[in-house]
């Protein structure tokens, strides 16, 4: 029998996010919709049986770490436990590589594929990241298309949200200055 799921909304500098969790770990993170109601609706679509609840201390610690990161404070979220039930093995491997990318740094889809030992799998890496239900915790926004292009982003706000997250983190591509330093 699966562990009971819970959800909560929380405010961040980019808007109201939503989080789902159970006794195993975070089951999903929802980036802001256009308002609180849309964020909650998106969270409920993915976690229909989850009950709204005040987050327990371990989930509140994850929320605090996410909020700090979105307040321009470099923060490592790789220690937040995730419930990967139902996540395909290849996706898990991609997520492990993505979780190892520090704030402010990026990799390309091809570089992630090479780190997996599957250099021809760049497209599959993109598909795995497109299915990422743990946005920010699994920092898919730190994975770019070839040449440092933003590529796609399936979270609310699309590529604009991806760019904003990279800007918050003062992202760098390789040894280049931050993506947004030239503005």
Task: Summarize the structure in words.
It contains six helices and six strands. It has 183 residues and is α/β, with parallel strands linked by helices. Helix content is 34%, strand content 14%. It has a four-stranded mixed beta sheet, sandwiched between helices. A two-stranded parallel sheet has the order 5-6. It has two domains: 65 residues, Methylated DNA-protein cysteine methyltransferase domain (Double Stranded RNA Binding Domain), CATH 3.30.160.70; 80 residues, Winged helix-like DNA-binding domain superfamily/Winged helix DNA-binding domain (Arc Repressor Mutant, subunit A). Helix 4 packs across helix 5.
Radius of gyration: 16 Å
Number of helices: 6
**Judging from the principal axes of the Cα atoms, what is the shape?**
globular
> Spatial order of the strands in the main sheet?
3-2-1-4
Strand content range: 5-15%
Cα distance, first to last residue? 52 Å
């Amino acid at each position: 029998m699966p562990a009971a799921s819970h959800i909560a909304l929380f405010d961040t500098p980019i808007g109201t996010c939503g989080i789902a969790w159970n006794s195993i770990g975070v089951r999903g993170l929802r980036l802001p919709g256009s308002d609180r109601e849309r964020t909650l609706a998106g969270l409920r679509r993915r976690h229909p049986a989850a009950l709204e609840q005040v987050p327990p201390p371990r989930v509140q610690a994850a929320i605090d770490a996410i909020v700090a990161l979105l307040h321009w404070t470099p923060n490592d979220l790789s220690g937040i436990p995730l419930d990967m039930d139902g996540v395909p093995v290849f996706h898990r491997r991609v997520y492990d590589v993505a979780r190892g990318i520090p704030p402010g740094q990026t990799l390309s889809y091809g570089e992630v594929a090479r780190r997996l030992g599957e250099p021809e799998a760049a497209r599959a890496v993109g598909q795995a990241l497109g299915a990422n239900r743990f946005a920010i915790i699994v920092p898919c926004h730190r994975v770019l298309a070839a040449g440092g292009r933003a590529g796609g982003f399936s979270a609310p706000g699309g590529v604009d949200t991806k760019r904003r997250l990279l800007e918050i983190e003062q992202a760098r591509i390789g040894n280049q200055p931050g993506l947004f330093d030239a503005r």
